[in-house]
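Reading a protein record of the kind used here takes only a little practice. Think of the row as the fold of the chain written in a discrete alphabet. A record is reproduced here so that you can trace the correspondence yourselves:
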Amino acid sequence: MEINQLKKINLPEFLGRQYQVQVTGGKAHCPFHPPDLNQSFSVYENGAGIWLWKDFHDADAGGSIIDFVALKDGLSVAAAIQKIKQLEGLEDRPAPARSTERRIEKVYEYTDEAGELLFQKVRYTPKAFSCRRPWKDGWSYSLGGLKAVPYRLSKIKGEARIFLCEGEKDADLLAGLGYAATSPPWGAGSWRPELNPYFRGKTVYICYDVGNEDKSKKIAAELRGSIKEIFILSVPLEKREADISDYLGVHPLPEDKTAAFEELIFSAVKYEPPKAKAPDGVFIGSLEEFMAADIAKAEPLVDPLVFRSGFSMAGGMKGTHKSFFVIQLGLHLAAGRSPFLNSAIAQPARVLLIQQEISVGFMRERLQKINEANPIDTAGRFIPVTTTANQIRLISQKGLDQVKGWIDKFEPELLILDPISSFHDTQENDSVAQAKIRDVLNRLKAQYNMAVLITHHFSSKRSQNDPLAPTEAGGWFRGHSCLSDAADVLICLHRLPGQRENPGLSRSYEDYNQVQVQLRNGRWPERFAIEFDEETFLLRVSDVWREMGRKIIPGQVCTLLEANDGEMRRQDVINSLARGGISPMAVRRAIDEAVGQGQVEKKQLFGKGAPVMLRLKSAASLI
């Protein structure tokens, strides 16, 4: 086969068939520079019937089908020729006779609104198309820089009713019958938004071939915002790709064709766009519709820590056993074992835990010790994934696709990410960066109707005894508040108050945590304490907080003031309660809580040391 005959192979079809490069209207996304958002790759046919390509990223890149294959696959010219022959089954095929070479059958002219020629669309036999524009003394087969216009633009611009056909042949037929008819320049699947303005304010009938009904509706959706009405006109034939010309061709006389076409117009269906379905987790409507809608109640998976389609965040300082907390929560949920600490589990659920903080070996050791000390049958519903050696970034498309792939495979009802800081490399105090993380998490839980639980670190090194420590749970977490503000549940693991001032503890102080839970609806479950067993890696509810809690509640301060005629100096209150073994810091915190609750008021006195007088509000009102 001659080289020129290879170069005459229809290049758009070859690229789509062999390299999955979709060429539309002579343009494509450049296969050499992905991702190419601007379609900087051009394919065109010259006057000799040879197909050429051009890469606009590189002024020197371009050529024939042979040059494309050689560059794309790293082959010599000879090897590229051989590969093309193999792909196309042309190794030993004799050269086609000249009688089979294609010839021009019809030329369709595309003009501007004034009727000036912009370009021509050429139809060949055997069936093929190319576009060309006037260039110097001949034609250029590249339309780069030309805007898309509808066929017969100068003839339809003043018409109120337009018939949009799939091809120029049908448009010419209807125009001959007296209808304002047009077509897009590059076939059914090549609609471009720049065509929309030419149809603004008009009534449009879309007359596409049999089998292309979906393309009709797609174009109708594109046009809907700018035109008056849209109708879909169906060709009543069964043969796929049968068109208006096929249907009207059985009528020899123009008046018969017109009568038959008028029947189609009468039976055309007005296009009504499908009602937009709100994304999962979104409601749009009036208050009355909202109250009457069938909206499922929030379903707790681990009550009140984790809710289906909810977002929970657990945090603490280093060494407060955050990872052990979420691991055991996931194991209990997967097994349907209730309670987890003091939280109820109604039924088992699938759990996907992705952790990026410790190695695979240490992760296995954790799970092995926990299971040996407290065997749990998760029935395959607990899926631990460790990616520490190859960490995932959620705000990269590759990392997000990997996580979605696991979700699609394992279908979890709870996704645990431990810790969230390892799933991104952005600035934690940057609101824009953290909002991206938040949005990804929100989309995941809504798309898959699953709960998301993340672990995060605390920023403040203050203890809970410090009067300047945060009072709201969200104030403890590191980084910008947009993450904690988005959470439905915040779980804080604090050190116990009165650090190292309680020699009666049965374990090391570091093995205890106070658990503080804040819910979106404002309910605060009772605070409780947990203890960690270093040998079994198990967490258990502890009684230590109940004993300490009795000593530092604000009511203790109020009772003492009431017994002393409703007022005492603050230092006297501290000294009095300290004699019962309560730390001065714990007493100060209880005083501040009593003041914050409006039970006690403070008054600064004059004197050495700036003393402060405390009064019960009820006693103060009598003075």
In short: Confidence is low (pLDDT under 50) at residues 93-99, 547-551. The chain has 20 helices and 27 strands. The CA atoms of residues 152 and 444 lie 48 Å apart.
